[in-house]
Amino acid sequence: MSSCKIKRDLESCEREIEKLQKTIKQKNKELQEVKAYIEKLSPKVKTDNQTQTDEDNDPQRLLYEAINKDNLIEELSGTKAQLEKELRTAEEELKTSSANPSTPNGQAFITKHRMELVNRLGLLPPILTRLHVRGVLSQEEIEIVEIKPTKSQQNQALLNMVVRKGARAQEYFYLALRESDLLLVEDLCNS
């Protein structure tokens, strides 16, 4: 892998991390706004010269507002947690790619490890689904792979299709394999 490609990949990861950090900052701001809104809706102590209306004391309305507040807080907290997780993952990938510039691209990986992949690919459905979602394989092509009688023939058919489709398809295959069976990828890269 060329140093220019590595540099572009690192810059891309750094931009993605910056985007995630901005999104987390925005979600924190939204969370603060929701908390402020909740504070505003919380029952307030009335002064002696103020009277409470029936609406202020309506238990159903108060329960509904409390549930809505809790749901908003839970939703924003979940979003924030997911974004923080994505940020950590992106940072880890950045560190990994920086520490290991010899990580192969999809084409080089398949070329080098094709025979091992034919014999060692595990569950195909997660890989096939990822390739289908990314537009690499059609449903008919997935069926052609799945109809093969043996596991190695299925693996061979999948690899043949991906290689025929070119470098971009091979890169998507490599990414799909990393997502679904990272241990296999690491073992092959280290052998």
Automatic annotation (TrEMBL):
Residues 85-106 are annotated as: Disordered. PANTHER family: CASPASE RECRUITMENT DOMAIN-CONTAINING PROTEIN 8 (PTHR46985:SF4), NACHT, LRR AND PYD DOMAINS-CONTAINING PROTEIN 1 (PTHR46985). GO terms for biological process: inflammatory response; innate immune response; regulation of apoptotic process. It is found in: Cytoplasm, Cytosol. It holds the Pfam family CARD. Residues 102-191 form the CARD domain. Its main location: cytoplasm. Residues 10-37 form a coiled coil. InterPro entries: CARD, DEATH-like_dom_sf, NLRP_Inflammasome. Keywords: Coiled coil, Cytoplasm, Immunity, Inflammatory response, Innate immunity. GO terms for cellular component: canonical inflammasome complex. SMART domains: CARD. Residues 85-95 have a biased composition (Basic and acidic residues). Residues 96-106 have a biased composition (Polar residues). It comes from the Eukaryota. This is CARD domain-containing protein.
